[in-house]
Amino acid sequence: MDPADEILDIVDENDEVVGRSPRGEAYARGLRHRCVFIQARDAHGRIFVHRRTATKMVFPSLYDMFVGGVVGAGESYDTAALREAEEELGVTGLPRPEPLFRFLYDNGTGQSWWSAVYEVRCELPVHPQVEEVAWHAFLPEDEVEGRLGEWEWVPDGLEAYRRLRAYRSAGNP
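User: That's the sequence. What structure does it adopt?
Assistant: Structure tokens below.
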């Protein structure tokens, strides 16, 4: 199926479903939908970082420190998080990602989605989807921090990362 044809729940500012729309139309019309962001770490605590392919519908060729994507119509955040993590990492049998928090991403230019942030430990060999991932590596967190000003990152991922750092510095695990 063409990703633009995937049906999404359209939600309001309170994350309540108010309709459904094909993904391509939701993006074109700036309809608010749902997404999941999963920070995957390996057995050494390094973060999975990747560069998106040039063919991605949103934020092509940019770097990201999360795997994830849209939540399908009728799908729960938790189900989408596991599905997206396994798809993008190219693994099966991943532990269920742990939900951390949600926030409303809004870039002020008509792009807005409810975002659920998760974390998962991936101790399996990864085989990322070639359609989604042009480059990948597990990087120590201090290297990710050092690259924030050097590489061009997806803006929603940067916002999720900023909020995740704040979440952890507030005493959350």
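The helical segments are 23-29, 77-89, 141-147, 155-169.
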